[in-house]
């Protein structure tokens, strides 16, 4: 009945379609899935009752001429006029009352309860029909021969209860798209369905309790009116076989109905495990399993929200800083780190702001910073902050890098090349320095940020000013060059030593080999 292993079956079976199909198709699908199985089940139940009364159950035979009118006219007429018409009327009436679900109308709480009570409502129709059949045929056969009353009474009751059990489970399956629409906005405050325990006990009673009770009744009547041993053996074998088949069928359907929601949650968990936090399952079960599906959706929603916050947090402070903050509780203070600092400052920013609209300036700066962030990330660095038209990047904190100086120098060269090619409207001076700095959280307890403070930061900022007058607009300190790997040093040459503004000691300048000689002026 269900192919829950099919990934494209959000309702647990390919027979039920998808949740986004048109209302008309949904209505036709549910109507067919309700009517056809219920009709077939009742016809099988009626046939089973006829076989049991006529052949299996001990007692006076009804295959006599005095019963011909009942057997060949009353029984067929009753099946056609009562069962077929009654079932068609019951399913049509139910679908009319649940038309909101096939017209995409938001359900009220009463609509929700009505949808979840749908299987029981249809089952009540079956019970009424079989009760009418029980009263009608027990009376008709009893009028002809009173001795047939016990076997007719037992047989119709046994067949009717068994048929109603299958009708309940099949109706619950067919109405799953309606239940899904009803549960979209949450379960109603008052439960409208049996829980797992109640449903399991009901299946046991109908699938095992009633048939075994029937066997016991046959045994009791055998004491009152002893049958031929062959008739008693046939009755026990046939009723026992029916009990095995009915019990197996009901248990199988019940297990599949319970397993379908669990499979949907399992598939959702697999999506989450793969990092797909958009996973969501359709809630269509009104029992505790529906609460499991709802709980998974809430969990996935929480994970999506956490991922969104983490992404926003990472965009604001840097993903390495964000990851470090989430691994341990961040506190004020820092630690000494051997780092390299890259400072980029736009040349002629005042002119750019004066000759362009604010919107154009922001767009231009975003293109400019996009190149910087891309290359800093590619070389293992961390853009610590944007300062108007300048940017500060750190290599070696918070994530340690073995060749932080080489990475910073390589990133600076690549940034300058890309800026000339991709953002020719802007020129920028780039300075690179290395040394010991304090890296940590600075600010107040209520508001702080991760940053680096120390001589390399100041030196890189001053070098970016010097770089504005250097061919290529790129300058690094001799200490950064000496710290870098041999492969990166081949791209640089040392130039003059100068005293940077605000410092007392001279700084050896290094420029890319493609640059012309560095200026011999003080900054």
Descriptive notes:
The protein is of the alpha+beta class. It has helices at 23-56, 68-97, 109-116, 118-144, 149-174, 176-182, 196-224, 229-273, 288-317, 319-327, 349-355, 358-378, 404-422, 455-467, 478-483, 486-489; strands at residues 333-347, 382-387, 390-395, 427-443, 448-453, 474-477, 492-499, 506-512. Strands 1, 2, 3, 4, 5, 6, 7 and 8 form an eight-stranded mixed β-sheet that branches. Strand 7 and strand 8 (506-512) form a beta hairpin. Helix 7 (196-224) runs antiparallel to helix 8. It is rod-shaped and about 125 Å long.
Summary keywords:
single chain, 523 residues, alpha+beta, 8-stranded mixed β-sheet, 16 helices, rod-shaped, disordered N terminus
The 3D shape can be described as: rod-shaped
Indicate the radius of gyration in whole angstroms: 41 Å
Report the mean per-residue pLDDT as an integer.
79
Order of helices and strands: HHHHHHHHHHEHHEEHEEHEHHEE
Intertermini distance = 83 Å
Oligomer: single chain
Largest sheet: 8 strands, mixed
The level of helicity is 55-70%
Q: Tally the helices: what do you get?
A: 16
Uncertain stretches of 5 or more adjacent residues: 1-7, 516-523
Strand content: 5-15%
Q: Give the tally of β-strands.
A: 8
Structural class: alpha+beta
What is this structure, in a nutshell?
The protein has 523 residues and is of the alpha+beta class. The protein has helices at 23-56, 68-97, 109-116, 118-144, 149-174, 176-182, 196-224, 229-273, 288-317, 319-327, 349-355, 358-378, 404-422, 455-467, 478-483, 486-489; strands at residues 333-347, 382-387, 390-395, 427-443, 448-453, 474-477, 492-499, 506-512.
